[in-house]
Amino acid sequence: MEDRKEEMPTAFTNTPAPGASSPPQATRKEEGFGSFLADTFEVLILTVILFLAIRSVVQNFRIEGHSMEPNFHDGQYLIVNRWAYCPGIYVDIPKVNIHVDLHRCLWQPKRGDVIVFRYPRNPRRDYIKRVIGLPGETMEIRRGVVYINGKPLAEPYRLNHATYNTGPITLGPDEIYVLGDNRPNSSDSHAWGPLKEKYIIGKAIVSYFPPKYWGIVSHYHVEPGG
């Protein structure tokens, strides 16, 4: 009897010919790499959005100089609350500055607050000072003593006292008067005039470096004649 051999239909074979590639596996590999790139891109976008969101609320600040001695020191790092007074957006990208001012819409600075602001004569530089005078008040300094609307201001925080005289000057509706705690050695409103609120970056809230200065920043709300 003649032997008969049946051939397996090629449509049902799962073994590729020698040297042949497997299209389904190659497709899955390409899809996996594309998915990895998409996931990586999404993570990067979310990271940038999160970074910008955080930067719109808080900002770190390094003190340079001695104008706030004896309460704040050269090289000390602070965290600044950008939303302490009103919401604003300020994004710093190398060679690109985007700034939208939304001032005078919620809360206003209080006397005694320690604030960080852009120096009016050079907005690329940031200064730290204490709020002393508020909009509409008349400021005068006699032998280092601050007078507001003719009444002396008893300041409870530590100061290096000055002996200079300046004023009187009446602040506009969008102006405040700022002074350094180291009065004889501070470039502030007694030297270059009132600060417009649009230059305010935020309120100092935490000192975090060096460790010996770690803590919440104290703010004193005082009134003249008190």
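[next item in queue]
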Amino acid sequence: MKAHWVMSGVSGDGFQWTKDDRNRVAEGMRLEAVIGPPNFKEIWWLESALKAARSVARVKMPNGAATGFLIGPDLFLTNNHVFENEADAAASVLQFNYRLLASGDVAPRDEWVCDPDDLFKTNPELDYSVVRVKKKEDKRAGDVWGFYDVGHGARVRTSQRVNIIQHPQGRFQEIAFRDNQVQAVEDIFIQYLTDTDYGTSGSPVFDDWYNVIALHNQRVPDPDNPHRWYRNQGYRIEAIIQDIGDLLSE
């Protein structure tokens, strides 16, 4: 084995080349290459994805399925076009852990119901609805599955990558994390290339540190060709939280 092709000097602080690229090329040493934007991720990124997925649920409705997530110990957020009113929320079931295991077996799902009579707030302009989740066995849903701190203050910018944990077409939980750059950042919404499908409505849009930065709500037509979809869109979590007001502190 030509060890100098693998590494050239390692210190206690980490990897260090002992020669610059020009010298290594001149001596015929093989160099690795980054093709396009770097795709390297620390393994903690996968661990964080699994942890983040716990607070995402499939919304099983009488006539279909969507997605939503916990933003408090007993507060559930999804789209207004999923829960247009209290009756929609009351008729739905929140299914946490609705996923396949690596073995191919179906994970044991955990079902919770909404309590819109206690709390329900919606805004079609920001396409969100937030609803109280009923306790079960004297526990709140967030005590079991965790919830997101949506007051993190993380910033979003164009070209950064975003990831969506979702239930596309009501399927078992999936994550979209390739070809996922942000294309536009506006005051109340962002647009991105991350894949979605029917059933993704209400999914959390994450940055690469798994901060929720938006609530996914729809696809966006190409202004030059209305028959072509060229972006997806979500409303910024800051705008939603500002509109929700003091509910998160209750």
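[queue empty]
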